[in-house]
Write a structure and sequence with these properties.
Length: 80
């Protein structure tokens, strides 16, 4: 794709960026892969860190993370 230069500098910058990342953009439309799962997991960890502020034991933090990710059914079969 050849860059099309316009009178506005903003559009020229957009075209240059588009040309620079064209392979990556095309790969997304071909495979439809994204990092949604990883972003969601990171968000859950950040929310948990805010909720557990002041928790001094790292083991408890990981236990709480496991509880939030797997649900209460794993630890209390009566709820299943």
């Amino acid at each position: 794709m050849q860059p099309v230069f316009a009178r506005t500098n903003t559009f020229n910058r957009f075209v240059k960026t588009l040309n620079k990342h064209m392979d990556i953009i095309a790969n997304y439309f071909n495979a439809r892969n994204n990092s949604g799962f990883v972003e969601g997991f990171n968000n859950k960890v950040k929310v948990l860190k805010r909720r557990c502020y002041g928790l001094s034991n790292v083991t408890r933090l990981f236990q709480r993370l496991m509880l939030d990710l797997t649900g209460f059914e794993r630890f209390n079969p009566a709820m299943a």
